[in-house]
Amino acid sequence: MKKLVLILGGILIILLICFIFAFIGIKNLIKEKTAFHEISKPEIVRKLKFDGEKEEIESKLIVKEGNLVIKVKDLDQGIKTLEKLANTFKGSIVLSQQRKFPKSKIKAKIVLRIPEEHFDKALQEIKSIAIEIISSEIKGEDITTEYIDLKARLKNLEAVENQLLEILKKAKTTQETLAVFRELKDIRNQIEILKGRIQFLERSSKFAKIIVNLIPEFPLKEKKWFPLITAKIALNSMIVFWKWVLDALIWLLIFFSPFILIGLIIWFIKRRR
Questions:
Q1: Which helix (H) or strand (E) covers residue 245, if one does?
Q2: CA distance readout (Å), 203 to 14, 115, 116, 123
Q3: Is the same domain home to 133 and 155?
Q4: What is the DSSP letter of 104?
């Protein structure tokens, strides 16, 4: 009896020890998971240093735009001249649109991108081809402040990226590594967005936009109506249509001929009975 009691007591003690170790292990696992979720952006960013200095640039960045409405002697010739001007000044035509609305005097719209240093000269050349300048507007948008601000933000973000890389090297646990990776991904996305905007501003300041609306001196002549040609086209279309219908009937007749033949034979046999 005493032996049985000792054996049961030993088993209970072993079970109790196993339970205590299991409880401690589960508690540590929960603690690690909680710590992983509690690693937040502010705790990481608090370790980082920011440089608030803004970069200085030599001259202002101005986005120039000209808007002209001109009357030309010949519309097609005017468009060709503008295309030649774009090539001469190492620019490009980004839009060439001709309109056929009878109520609108403007019959063509051409948008040119010209290097900023040739902007004034290009405007003079465009005005020289006009027999009358209906309207002329030149405006410029100063993007210097935005550009400097974006460059400063980019510099700070790149500094943060470098510091995060240093923190990543010193990370001791998987949770810390994953947390830093998340921050790096977010910082790099912001860097790419800023770089795209900066490049857009640089391109915009280097190439000015000139919008030219063209009005021909004389209204465009309407095309003459030739009823005989219209009738001929309609007749040809009708012939093509009925040829297609007849071809389809011939195909159907040949394709279903065996079935038609079998049906006639069955019908003939039943009729004789």
A1: helix 227-272
A2: 77, 10, 10, 20
A3: no
A4: -
Q: How many domains does the chain have?
A: 2
What's the pLDDT score for residue 42?
A: 40
Sheet harboring 108-115: ordered strands across?
92-98, 108-115, 207-216, 62-72, 132-142
pLDDT at 38: 41
Global model pTM greater than 0.70? no
pLDDT, tens digit (0-9, with 9 covering 90-100), for 164-198? 998 888 888 888 889 888 999 999 999 999 999 99
Vertex 94: Cα angle to 92 and 99 (nearest 5): 125
User: Is the per-residue pLDDT at 18 higher than 60?
Assistant: no
Residue 221 lies in a domain: no
For residue 183, which of 163, 199, 202, 198 has the smallest C-alpha distance? 163
Domain limits for position 86 = 63-141
CB–CB of 32/176 below 8 Å?
Answer: no
Whether residue 155 is found in the same domain as residue 186: yes
State the Cα–Cα distance between residues 143 and 247, nearest whole angstrom.
Answer: 68
Using the structure block, give the residue that is written with the tokens 């001259």.
Answer: 59
Identify whether 242 is part of a domain: no
By the 8 A CB rule, do 152 and 53 touch?
A: yes
Domain termination residue (choose one: 213, 229, 247): 213
Task: Identify the domain boundary among 141, 166, 189.
Answer: 141
Other Cβ atoms within 10 Å of 71 Cβ, number: 16
Check which CATH number belongs to the domain holding 96 and give it. 3.30.70.260
